[in-house]
């Protein structure tokens, strides 16, 4: 089934460069299958990601988002709260419904979903379905908490299929703090000889965060 493209319900006065600042231009526009950011504390990687995904959800009416952390009990006070912040930051809160108990967020003009799951039981995640469009994007936050790549790959396999739209794309966004040299994320995304196919990967630091004051910068 092909859906008509819904208008982007972002306030026209919003300047996204002013909202997110500098340092993430290529990350923001990337449509690689794997979009990866290794960023230190204070590098605004999570805030940039939630604003980007919220904007894209409103832009592409076929898209639904699966948000993953290693443990489900960490989602409500991190990723879910970050998405609420993004919705209010973009001044589109009247277009979203928040379900605190699930947790789950619905874009009400179309019924698209932002779903939140933990990797406590990876196999349960592979059976998730949506009513509108397709589950085509996933965001792994704090991915360094995931002990081995097999749990990660189990969820990635659930992002499959296609959709009858010329602008359709699937994407896995991965964000995390710097790792140990032995962590699987390094070889999977950053080592040239073993990097996963169709990967865009960047490293950011607090220096690209214009909104840190001098006290914050001294701490980082």
UniProtKB/TrEMBL annotation:
InterPro entries: P-loop_NTPase (IPR027417), Terminase_L_N (IPR035412), Viral_DNA_packaging_terminase (IPR052380). Residues 32-217 form the Phage terminase large subunit N-terminal domain. Pfam families: Terminase_3. The lineage of its organism: Bacteria, Bacillati, Bacillota, Bacilli, Bacillales. This is PBSX family phage terminase large subunit.
């Amino acid at each position: 089934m092909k859906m008509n493209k819904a208008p982007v319900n972002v306030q026209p006065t919003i300047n996204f460069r002013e909202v997110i600042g500098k340092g993430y231009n290529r990350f923001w526009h990337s449509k690689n299958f794997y979009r990866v950011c290794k960023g230190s504390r204070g590098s605004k990687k999570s805030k940039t990601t939630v604003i980007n995904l919220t904007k894209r959800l409103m832009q592409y009416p076929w898209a639904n988002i699966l948000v993953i952390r290693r443990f489900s009990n960490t989602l409500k006070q991190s990723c879910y709260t970050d998405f609420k912040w993004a919705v209010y930051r973009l001044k589109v809160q009247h277009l979203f419904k928040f379900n605190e108990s699930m947790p789950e967020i619905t874009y009400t003009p179309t019924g698209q979903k932002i779903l939140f799951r933990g990797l406590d039981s990876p196999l349960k995640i592979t059976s998730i379905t949506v009513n509108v469009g397709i589950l085509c994007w996933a965001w792994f936050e704090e991915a360094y908490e995931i002990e081995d790549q097999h749990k990660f790959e189990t969820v990635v396999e659930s992002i499959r299929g296609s959709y009858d739209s010329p602008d359709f794309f699937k994407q896995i966004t991965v964000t995390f703090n710097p790792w140990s040299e032995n962590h699987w994320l390094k070889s999977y995304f950053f080592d040239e000889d073993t990097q996963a196919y169709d990967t865009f990967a960047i490293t950011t630091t607090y220096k690209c965060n214009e909104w840190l004051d001098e006290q914050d910068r001294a701490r980082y």
